[in-house]
Amino acid sequence: MMAARDPHRFVNDLGDEAVERLISRLESRAKDSVFTSLIDKYSSLLLLTDPAKVLEVGCGTGAMIRSFVRSKNFNGHAFGVDQSGSFINAAKSFARHEHLENRLQFQIGDAHNLDFPSASFDTVIANTLISHVSDPARVLEEMARVVWPGGTIAVFDGDYASLTYAFPDHDFGRQMDSALATASFNNPRVMRDLPRMLDTYGLQLVSAWGDAVVEIGEGSYFKSFAETYAPYVTISGLMAENDVDSWLSTQREAMKSGTFFASCNYYTYLLRRV
Ligand SMILES: C[S@@+](CC[C@H](N)C(=O)[O-])C[C@H]1O[C@@H](n2cnc3c(N)ncnc32)[C@H](O)[C@@H]1O
């Protein structure tokens, strides 16, 4: 059996077609109201200085940080860093298209070794990054280093051990839920570990909460999720291709007939650097 390789962690090893599919997924996810309401909720709670200097680590195509820069309460300059040159090129092009290039800068970089001096930003964001990185503790340490003392770190991600799609055969459905989480996320349970990691890096918990993303009847967010990530279950050798294909057809049928059900918990941590 091949080892599971989280596509976002190993994005630089993927072919062009697979990268294009991830770009589409990131952009479509950012238009999905079920999901964006959670991001808007924590973004609106960030107390920004005026002008603000904000960094998004693991920005992908820049979908999250573009919407942040467009928001009413933002005045200042934002930066996005991602390990993937293809994502960064896409991010620059989307930002140009939206005339945001004067307020938003993107660069290639590794979240484990950020190329910024210490205490450079008043807010640092990791939006669905921490579940994908090789070493979450090191990424948190880097985020704590580049934020000013008194500044804010926001960490938002899914708890993928809670990811579930309804399936008539419960045992098979449970196996598929677990395979999807293993194949797609290097650290599917990391959001449960964060409280134990904060002290070491001089971070204080300001607030934290959970939200469930749930789709019943119709599927949109979880449709794109299943179509993007189910192939990695087969690629990882976790389940047989025909089993994964039949699971996916059952999900598509359920969406057509209005009998679909899927859910996953997402958590937000707002942290202060002491
Ligand atoms: C699910 S995407 C989230 C993208 C973006 N934050 C958003 O919400 O649209 C995860 C991103 O983390 C990036 N990533 C994973 N490991 C990284 C690392 N070590 N350094 C920088 N970026 C990384 C991937 O390239 C990918 O763009």
TrEMBL record:
Top-rank EC class of the record's enzyme: transferase
Molecular function per GO: demethylrebeccamycin--D-glucose O-methyltransferase activity; S-adenosylmethionine-dependent methyltransferase activity
E.C. designation(s): 2.1.1.164
All copies of domain Methyltransferase, residue ranges: 52-159
Record Pfam families: Methyltransf_31
Keywords: Methyltransferase, Transferase
GO terms classed as biological process: methylation
Name by which UniProt lists this protein: Demethylrebeccamycin-D-glucose O-methyltransferase
Lineage, opening ranks: Bacteria, Pseudomonadati, Pseudomonadota, Gammaproteobacteria, Chromatiales
